[in-house]
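We give the entry.
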Amino acid sequence: MAENTAPDGVLRSRMAIYISGGIGDVVLHMGYVRALAQEVGEPLTMLLPHAQATHCLFDSQSYIDRVIGLEDIHKDRKHRVAHLSELLRAQQIDTLFLFSFHRFVAQAAKRARVARRVGFIRYHQPHLARLLTHRGWVRRRGTPHPDTHTWLPPILRRCGYDVTPVYPSLEVAPAARDQVRELLPADASRMVGIGLNGSSADKRYSGEAFALVIQQLHQRFPGLSFLLFGASDVADTASAICACLPSDVSLINITQSKLNLCESDALLAECSYFIGNDSMGLHLALAHQIPSIGLFGATPPMSYVPWLYPVVTTIPSSMDGISPQAVIDTACRHFQLGLAAASALQPELPASPAGSLSSVEPASRLERSAC
């Protein structure tokens, strides 16, 4: 992480960005955070209401000056405006971008006399417009992050920042990469990430359906290995996948591991392809420019970068409407699963015919034995 102060003791960065929601929501916005840091020529401050354990991923980015945790302030409803206002004054923040809108954050920024308060207002809440100095308008219902790449650029331009998101938007910390190196298969270029996680059960593809996808891809392209990505909340899904697959499928299951977020991200960044639910895992893969299939059943489909290929349910609001065959067809159409992909992987890749590929050795440590 960059030093907080210049040699004379003055804070270098007076621009801060506030993002709430899940970790995936933060990751989704990091392309713009990186672009803004490059535009102003110095690392930025991030204000995050997430648990301290998640800060390592963002603290490790060269374009982030520091991460200030707001978890306790968020919980203290009675005093949070006053406490956040004091914090903003103490940090000498003069520009605050609200990539997520919370009224108390905007109120605190106004009370702290932050000169530029930039964000969005919902059409049905025009009375809140006075809290922001630069604003855009978004739809009434739901979180606006699926539309971020529509509403955010015009707001930034009004502030003098004509930027486009920068990718890859996340850097892998060298220490984290070294920590997971021994977990990789012999040929990591043939690894497919399988994103099991999701903020709620209705956003998760079933273990049996994922197993069908993995088994058919393995039969058609036997050189592939598969990373089961997620935490302990989806360990049962990982177990169901393992139970359905033959022993010759190379699996790395981290759902019951003790990897921290930086280490999990470093392992995911080694994948050449990704298939997963609308979740943090999917947005991490996209941040690393990994060609990815997003499974959208309970949430609206997104396609905010050209290397994201959405598969949408045929049954409204249900993951059951996503057939394994639809996922496989999308993978064969957009992923170059032949051996040539290992030497020249590009975000947009033509489909290649099925072939017989050389097998990879099982991964050490975290492999089928973890299932």
Notes: Confidence is low (pLDDT under 50) at residues 1-11, 340-365. The chain has twelve helices and twelve strands. The longest strand covers residues 116-122. The two ends are 36 Å apart (CA to CA).
